[in-house]
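<given_protein>
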Amino acid sequence: MIQTGFIYNDFISNLKLLFENNLTVDLKWREGDAEHTSTYTFGLQGISEVDMLVIPQYPYLCIEFEGATDNQAGVPYQQKDVTLRATIHYYAEEVENETNVMNIQQALWAIVAVLRRNNTLGGFCRELSITEITPGFRLKGNGWIQGGMVKVEAIKRTEVF
């Protein structure tokens, strides 16, 4: 766990560290009465702590800080909860290549699986929740890119001095 005292940077750094340490994930799902399992390997060429204009290689993860909200209601004296928000952008490849939509959805579900299995970011926050999962296209400096995004929120309790 990374904890330098700058909770906004620490949040993004811990998300990045989470994916660096989980480059493969076991997926489990159910179809009817049958249970299925498979191992998904991200094969990432890189992970960035900012959303980049030009993606150097694919697939790539960019983690973008989206903001924070303070909440002191119902929190013990001299403490407050901070809700931190981030978007994890998954860039599969440029649109000219025919990426299977199922591959992108599987990558997004693998990202979700990693987040759900590590919902405290190694003890950094009390709770991590997924607020949105969206596959699709994104216009970047080098054209349209296939991929998707996963939005997350984390609740971090901090001391107030």
